[in-house]
Amino acid sequence: MEVWELVARESIRDCIARYNANGDSGRIDEMVSVFAPDGIMETGSGRYEGRDAIHAFMSSVVLRGRADPQETTSESVVLTPTQEWIARGRVPFIRHYTATTQIDVLSETHAKARSYYLFLTVHGLDHWGRYLDEFAPVDGKWLITYRREITDAAFAGGWGARASGGEGIEHVTRALSF
């Protein structure tokens, strides 16, 4: 393995981590900055092309995921049920865990990665799925040029089920209701 490939692999791991860490902290601008300017994100039945479209989509997911979509605040993004959020002093709690990331560096200008993710809230495991990514160097940084997010399952009534509007996961959310 050559040094450039090691640099690519570690840059891609960092890019995946920054996407989740920034999203979990409500930093949507920073979250979207890991995409190439003309990057594409596909999730459910939606396709979002370019950083502006991805940012608008992510902002809409935040609103749909709120227990009370009418609630606004100057604080960080609200991603847990409103009662929990208030009880925690208006501190959100969500965490993405990305694992089993397999990176294929195809050339000095193109790589692909596949990862599993788990999404936790104050209530525990909420939903889980996969990222299918493509990367390219842009101005010396490896960025996401294409991401397909696939939600494998979500608990009924959870944040992921609300945020997705149940798209594509209705059959599993019924099976996972407790």
What does the oligomeric state look like here? single chain
Radius of gyration: 17 Å
Structural class: alpha+beta
Give the low-confidence spans.
73-79, 168-178
Mean pLDDT figure: 82
Corresponding CATH architecture: Roll
Distance between the termini: 48 Å
Number of strands: 6
Highest-level CATH class: Alpha Beta
Strand content: 35-45%
Largest sheet: 6 strands, mixed
Helix content: 25-40%
Structurally, the number of domains stands at 1
Protein architecture, described:
The chain is α+β, with helices and mostly antiparallel strands. The chain has one domain (3-175): Nuclear Transport Factor 2, Chain: A (Roll), CATH 3.10.450. Helix content is 34%, strand content 38%. The chain is built from six helices and six strands. It has helices at 3-24, 28-32, 51-65, 82-87, 159-164, 170-175, and strands at residues 35-43, 46-49, 94-107, 110-121, 124-138, 141-154. A six-stranded mixed sheet has the order 2-1-6-5-4-3. It is globular and about 50 Å long. Residues 73-79 and 168-178 have low confidence and may be disordered.
Can you summarize this structure?
With 178 residues, the protein is an alpha+beta fold.
